Amino acid sequence: MDNKQRQDNIKGCNYNEAQIQVLEGLEAVRKRPGMYIGTTSIKGLHHLVYEIVANSVDEALAGRCDRIEITIDKDNIITVTDNGSGIPVGIHPKMGIPTVEVVHTVLHAGGKFDSSAYSISGGLHGVGASVVNALSEFLEVEVKRDGKIYKQRYERGKTVTKLEIIGDTDETGTKTVFKADSQIFDTVEYEYDALLSRYREMAFLNKGVMIVLTDKRGEEDVINELCYEGGIVSFVRYLDSNKTRIHKNTIYIEEKKDNCVVEIAMQYNDSYSETLYSYANNIATIEGGMHVTGFRSALTKVINDYARKIGALKDANKNLTGDDVREGLTVVLSVKLHDPQFEGQTKSKLGNSYIRTVTEQTVNEDLAAYFEENPQEGKAIVDKCLLASRAREAARGARDLARRKTALEGNALPGKLADCSETDPIKSEIFIVEGDSAGGSAKQGRDRKYQAILPLWGKMLNVEKARIDKIYNNDKLHPLITALGTGIGEDFNIEKLRYHKVIIMADADVDGAHIGMLLITFVYRYMRELIEKGHLYLAQPPLYKITKGKESIYAFNEVEMERIFRDKEWDRKDCTLQRYKGLGEMSSVQLWETTMNPESRTIIQIKMDNPFLADTAVSDLMGDDVQPRKEFIERHAKDVQLNRLDI
Asked: pLDDT tens digits for 77-88?
């Protein structure tokens, strides 16, 4: 562009003072809600509850609250009540309005910036109550404080009543009632199980605090009273309730050092994966951080030192690895500290470097002392780690053999893989197809430019019940590992993923659902980042084909089939109904039209919004114990909407 053209463009534009918008008060929140709560999906909806309850939990952390009640009323109105100190109601010295109004109408206003009010808190930014207020149709707050009950109402972030005294009381606390704004959110229907999981976690982390969660939307109230005097020890026992313990007692460590608290509960079981939940000031640090790094390095050192001391490790050059000492370990690590610094992609990684040293020292001293005082349990743990080490060495041998074989074959891809011509992973997708016959139809029906097909045959290994050496030697999993290119476990590298859409395509029946769950379990345990980064999907093939004359319509389940008959006003006697027993019964054209064509297909993205719920579900569904699987099916049978497993 030459200078004259640029000047002409400037003269012709309408960019002037009038285009500079100033969003006052909470308008910015309503204009860009995603900046404050991440999303307007159900995850963002739940975030409103989390923000209000976080204020009550901070009161509990400060020792001023021991009861929090959360109620979902009809019309999805949320009520949160606590018996804390109550939000201050006096006139704010700077703003000139009641402080409770400042908290609800001014961003970055709160008591968490001044450590004299909250020495430790999960609320960091002072945006919680004001953001919830901005994104609600209405919000009412009642404060019990100084012998009086105060009340104020807001609508879509704006104050609509003055703060008024509505009664006398000898109690203290805060009650918040709000209704999420349907103009903002995709849905305002709360998922009770997701909230229950969240607040069970909170109850475990805050020993002795009673959290009552009530759902009043059904014919009968659903009430859960959550209170755990055992704290995170109870948490670990809950997580391991369906697993066989390696040692009798759950190990518990707590130390207060350098103005912070480190709390650890840990238990070894007979599973083959590590289950670790870490927290900083009750905030889940799903990406880990310095406290997790300190714990893991100290754990490896302490177990190696103890194994040498009791003569279990005789080779001076051999050490148990971090993976060896964490196999089958369930651990909850909770730290409380001043001014936590969060980083990472989701701001859920603890960055304070000093907490690593504190955690490391705590484990080095207290776990070593525990082994000295409990030699039988120490030996049982060392034996478990040695068994894991031997299996890992066998797996390493199998992995190296596979690498050598691949190198000799010139980095050959699996023989059954029909690859696509596109080399850009972002534009490529792979269908993991159940059965050779369905694989054949898929290969013929696909778009060869960007769609790859990998047929699998028979039911594969349940990795929840197998060590990693079995996985490397499994003839059904090995082609999948090779095709995706990322490696698994400690070798996993998301940058090497060859397709950004990995689509599981199995029959629309119980067996297909089982195969789908086996594949999801494998990815969850050994390629979890595929789920975290949104690369894993479930295809949704139809179950029925309804034909009348020259018109054919596909139905994905019986409910949809009945709807089609009703909407079309078709008589069943005049129609031909075909039920597909499997993908192999479809022609390549039908498979393309219904299941593979991006313009007409339905695929479900596998998400993991709640790691706690995900881990529990995988253990319950795929573990050795039958009873939790039976209970899971009974609990969720009413929620199934498709004739397949709806993840």
From this structure: 999 999 999 999
- Asked if residue 520 has pLDDT above 80, the reply is yes
Looking at the chain, the domain(s) classified CATH 3.30.565.10 span: 27-191
- Selecting among 73, 447, 509, 585, the annotated active-site residue is 509
State the chain's mean pLDDT as an integer. 85
**How far is Cα 589 from Cα 596, in angstroms, rounded to an integer?**
10
Rounded Cα distance, 323 and 385, in Å: 9
Q: Which of 146, 258, 305, 511 is catalytic?
A: 511
400 as an active site residue: the answer is no
- Report the pLDDT value the prediction gives residue 507, as an integer from 0 to 100: 83
Supply the DSSP string of 49-86, one letter for each residue.
HHHHHHHHHHHHHTTS--EEEEEEEGGGEEEEEE-SS-
Catalytic residue among 82, 507, 593, 615: 507
CB 106 within 8 A of CB 150: no
Instruction: Clarify whether 625 is annotated catalytic.
Output: no
Q: What is the pLDDT of residues 315-355, one digit of tens each?
A: 878 899 999 999 999 999 999 998 889 887 666 899 999 99
CATH class of the structural domain 232-392: alpha beta
Q: Which residues pair with 454 in a beta bridge?
A: 432
Side-chain-facing half-sphere of 457: CA atoms under 13 Å: 7
pLDDT tens digit sequence for 199-220: 999 999 999 999 999 999 999 9
Integer Cα distance of 618 and 639 in angstroms? 18
Residue 504's pLDDT is what? 94
User: Has 509 been annotated as catalytic?
Assistant: yes
Identify the pLDDT of residue 199: 95
Domain 27-191, second-level architecture:
2-Layer Sandwich (3.30)
CATH 3.40.50.670: which residues of the chain? 413-541
Residues paired with 505 in a beta bridge: 433
For this structure, is 366 an active site residue? no
Q: Where in the chain is the domain with CATH 3.30.230.10?
A: 232-392
Catalytic residue, candidates 101, 324, 434, 532? 434
Q: How far apart are CA 461 and CA 476, in angstroms?
A: 8
CATH code for residues 413-541 = 3.40.50.670
> Per-residue confidence at 539, pLDDT binned at 50, 70, 90?
very high
